[in-house]
């Protein structure tokens, strides 16, 4: 592999691994906020025990998230120096804002939450947990601003640099921050994080209830997780998933065609593909879809609110502007499938809970336990669809502030010219080994904490 | 003062904030390698556990601010220092998770391993930051168009290693002074001795470094005789004298304050003399990265200034509040506990 391919692989590995942890941190932080609030206001020892237990899971996850996040902060400069030069005037500001407004907040109050239980008033201690939740949620905003600007750049113009090359310069901070994809993506991702946290709480409490259904903190946690999980699993699909897909259809039609599997132009409207096996090679029409299961006109309606609206297919784009097809299609469709599963399992669990029968429904409880990692998987799949769907551009084409077209910055010309394939291969292996070890340790500690939480509380 | 100069100052503030704050917890981490017992090592860890994460954010924010304000420096230097930065990142990762993981399982082997990871993961960055600064001051091969022409081994030159030893000694001394304020009895007494001995090592290394700088980068003395340069040099000397004087007099908190001022003064002296150069090119002064040729557009610098002016006062308020909550001596049983 050449330096470019290795740099891309390294970025995919480091960002993919890092992105396991922030959704869990955000989701768990808000569950801790709720549990600690109930424990404090109701003076309920079960909720306090639940809060302490979830706080430990949060602390372990947060540490790995911070540790792997440091790499991201530096990697743009180390591996993608030409990209950094091109976008620094715009991308750097949200990154710095993330530090000033979010990282300081979550880190400082994380220390106060974890170590301040005996030193702070109950109200201040709860406020510390709240600030961890707020900080981590704000952090997601700024990083999504930066990433969304790569997807749908706005509020900039391109200027030539005196030393050669070009860069994007800011013309409007507000337009760059609230570029067309920021808010749809932010709500989509934050809701996904809340779903992730709820599934962990519901799942680990279901595991405890299956072993001992008298365990009061686990019963209360299960209720909390299921209620929270159902609410956000529904919101995740409708409206937020839907709104995000509509935004992609409007602003990144090539990506939309790839994730939806719309390879060939249809006369008039576009069908919604429910199932299909994409193939890339073979006689025309290729690429194509084998064994398709389609509903005519539905994609047109979902994307543009009109059964007869035309939707651009891949054939409308030159080959060198198409994203990889297989990966985008498969990741997107499996994410959607998981989203439907989240609503279904939580609806079933909520129905049983409402009827007072969830604690005896061993099958449903087991399904909740098995579902614990699935929201994390869905986040990863969504991230793959979003980032691979942006290819072959690292900054997507769009319009400059004066209305003139911007051709996009291609990934192929954005890496660091001074970093060789050998150096990247070395650091990739290094990070691969470290991350594998971290993942095993993290999982070991999470499982261990969960097991120990069921033992009688020390006097 | 133009926007570029304001951002030169603000980046300096972030670096100084990072060096003072993470400096002591890197130092405490390095000292934990020499703890006399597992219980004593627990105290080292507990003394920094509630605050280290907030301290490290100064580095993250500094990196983000550098990216935003001077993207050419971020892009050129970070890609140039590739392997060195990767080593630094692995050390920082090891340290971050070691702090959290160490207390989770009571088995001696587990605690020993993560204790070592915390120690080495602290000592290595304390030295590597100095090596990086040494290279930036000595000059690195940057050609036309900010093209990097250096190599990994080129970064390990004697001057840079000397500066790495300076920061290593400085942070260990700073950490010892901090730990002294947080500990009691034998550990407190031992930290007094460690601080005094590392102070001597620091003075010798810093003097050597200053002489070497005269040969390697004489422009770093350009403003020593101007009023501001002179004032800062005097501040540096005064705070350096303050460290052993207060340490001997038993004024532990004043000694830590003096060492904090010393760190800030060292950074300011370099900054004032180097201004407006950010990174020296060894291929000719016209190719150096300065606050003008490496900067973002005025609009971005202004936007960032607003962000900093709104955000940083709030950060300072709750940072001070956090330190107040955890003031006083650290005792056994505080900090991370195995369940």
Outline the secondary-structure elements.
The complex is a heterodimer of chains A (459) and B (339).
Chain A: H1 3-18, H2 21-41, H3 45-79, H4 81-115, H5 122-151, E1 156-160, E2 166-170, H6 173-177, H7 182-211, H8 216-251, H9 253-260, E3 272-279, E4 288-295, H10 298-304, H11 325-354, H12 362-370, H13 374-388, E5 393-395, E6 398-399, E7 405-406, E8 409-410, H14 421-453
Antiparallel strand pairs in A: 1-2, 3-4, 5-8, 6-7
Helix pairs in contact in A: 1-3, 1-14, 2-3, 2-5, 2-7, 3-4, 3-8, 3-14, 4-5, 5-7, 7-8, 7-12, 7-13, 8-9, 8-11, 9-11, 11-12, 11-13
Chain B: H1 3-32, H2 38-48, H3 52-69, H4 71-80, H5 82-102, H6 108-138, E1 142-143, E2 147-148, H7 152-155, H8 158-182, H9 185-216, H10 227-248, H11 252-274, E3 277-279, E4 289-290, H12 298-325
Antiparallel strand pairs in B: 1-2, 3-4
In words, what does this structure look like?
The model of chain A has no long low-confidence stretch (mean pLDDT 89). Chain A starts with a helix and ends in a 6-residue tail after the last helix. With 459 residues, chain A is mainly α. Chain A is built from 14 helices and 8 strands. Chain A has 2 domains: 1-179 and 414-459, no CATH class; 184-388, no CATH class. Chain B is an all-alpha fold and 339 residues long. The radius of gyration of chain B is 20 Å and the shape is globular.
SSE-based structural type of chain A: mainly alpha
Question: Any idea what the shape of chain A is?
Answer: globular
* Strand order of the biggest β-sheet of chain A: 1-2
How much helix, percentage-wise, in residues of chain A? Answer: 55-70%
Largest sheet of chain A: 2 strands, antiparallel
Helical content class of chain B: over 70%
SSE string of chain B? HHHHHHEEHHHHHEEH
Largest interface: A-B, 74 and 71 residues
Mean pLDDT of chain B: 89
Summary, kept brief:
The complex is a heterodimer of chains A (459) and B (339). Chain A has 459 residues and is mostly helical.
